[in-house]
Amino acid sequence: MLHTLSSEGVGNMRPFSSKVLLTITAVLFVSNAHGQNGYDKLKAMAEGPWHHLPNPVSSLQFDRDLAKCRVVVAQTPVTSSTPVLVETKLRMVLIDCLKASGYEPGAAPVGKPASDLSTLANIKYSNILCTDIAKMRASSPNATDTVFFIWIRGFIEGWNAGLETDGKKDVLRDEVFKVDTVAIPVDQQMKIVRKFCDDHPSKSYLGAAMELILKLKEAARQQVKP
Fold first, then answer.
1. Residues 75, 167 within the same domain
2. N or C: which end of the chain has fewer CB within 10 A?
């Protein structure tokens, strides 16, 4: 995935100094340090695009890493009062931080397109918000729904398995806590999960799992009524 950032992400740059001589000196310093037009090249590099190696990451992950690097930039001590030097230092800090996080400047190599679903294996699903999933659904709706619903079903199976850790059956415990995963057709279960996230975008996806458990329990009770 191609990731870019605006020059605002570099940090709060100080107003341009009126000390012309110092400014000219600073420009010469940057040019000598980074080659011809080094200042412009450094600015362009900081603003992106960036790609992640060895594997692409989602725009969501890039935004998180970028936010972390912006904090690093904001905490960087600046002793110079020369604007060009200040900007150069802060941009170099941002670039070094992104590189340390696995990013390289420029577009991703052709033939290796990034995907919002490329990092699903490393996601801690209980920390995912419904709004995060909405962003992934924008580009891959079917795959996103399927992968995250599989996680919910696995969560519920684990829920049920946890009730039998002592190897004994407990009718009362099962009646209160055990979940009948087929009490509602799968397509309707997916709709319940999607509706929860649509109605509560700022809530954790784990909340959607708990909502589905409650709906399954309710459906199972309705089925056993005389």
1. no
2. C
